[in-house]
Specification:
Helices cover 16% and strands 47% of the residues. The chain is of the alpha+beta class and 247 residues long. The chain has 2 domains: 112 residues, Box (Proliferating Cell Nuclear Antigen), CATH 3.70.10.10; 111 residues, DNA Polymerase III, Chain A, domain 2. The strands form 3 sheets. The protein has a 9-stranded antiparallel β-sheet.
């Protein structure tokens, strides 16, 4: 049994948006420490790992650990109906997830059927990353848009002093270099040069929920899965994306 409350329902809406951008169903794990979810996208190219600590909630009551399988697309549609100044109370109710939106003058309650999630993920990929780049989330979104004019793929290269971006397609090429400690790059820590190519559509889906003004941490190892992390309030969101390898 659990019952949890957020004073701002839009906060949970934004958190779920960061997950549903990659996966359409998932298994939330409710524990006394908080709520977590790990899931692969249907193509198994990317993975999302989410954790929201107990302190993020105004009320957090979890009697014992519980796994809640949910169709995330349906959950996201319900959360899109969040109004201004609404709180959200979530609890389990007869194998359904109850979502009650509470405003100063009204209440609305949805009940969403829990589902059996066929495939769950327990562990994150184990990669010994060679470079760690802290970048402005807003600027990363612009970089992805720039690359999207040219190609469906984007190449990253990190050295101890610079972060390079390139894209190549039938219509042309893009190359951009960003020095560390500048407007775009906040920090680089590279034990050696690291570079890899990634699918732009997945990259766009991963970064689009990053709040305005937040930084993104990108971890790279040459031709290995990358890791992208950022925070949404108190919540931690991490993505892993396999590199594109030409056949």
């Amino acid at each position: 049994m659990f019952e949890i409350k957020l004073d701002n329902a839009k906060y949970w809406r934004d958190c779920v948006a960061s997950i549903v951008s990659l996966v359409d169903e998932g298994l939330f794990n409710f524990t006394k420490e908080g709520i977590s979810l790990k899931a692969m996208d249907p193509s198994s190219i990317s993975m999302v790992s989410f954790f929201m600590p107990e302190k993020a909630f105004s009320k957090y009551s979890v009697d014992k650990s519980a796994n809640v399988g949910i169709n995330l697309e349906n959950l996201s549609k319900i959360l899109s109906r969040t109004r201004e100044n609404e709180a959200l109370v979530m609890k389990d109710s007869d194998n359904k997830l109850s979502l009650e939106f509470i405003s100063p003058s009204s209440r609305r309650r949805y009940k969403l059927q829990m589902i059996d999630v066929k495939k769950s993920v327990e562990k994150e990929p184990n990669v010994d990353f060679e470079a760690h780049v802290e970048i402005s989330g807003d600027q990363l979104k612009e970089i992805i848009k720039d690359a999207g004019l040219i190609s469906s793929y984007i190449a990253f290269k990190a050295t101890k002093d610079q972060f390079g971006v390139s894209a190549r397609g039938d219509s042309g090429e893009l190359e951009a270099l960003h020095d560390k400690n500048g407007e775009v790059i906040k920090k680089i820590d590279a034990s050696k040069s690291a570079d890899a190519v990634f699918n732009l559509e997945f990259m766009d889906n991963m970064v689009k929920s990053c709040p305005v003004g937040n930084s993104v941490l990108i971890d790279l190892k040459s031709n290995e899965p990358m890791k992208m992390t950022y925070k949404i309030g108190e919540a931690d969101i991490a993505y892993f994306l396999a590199p594109y390898m030409e056949e």
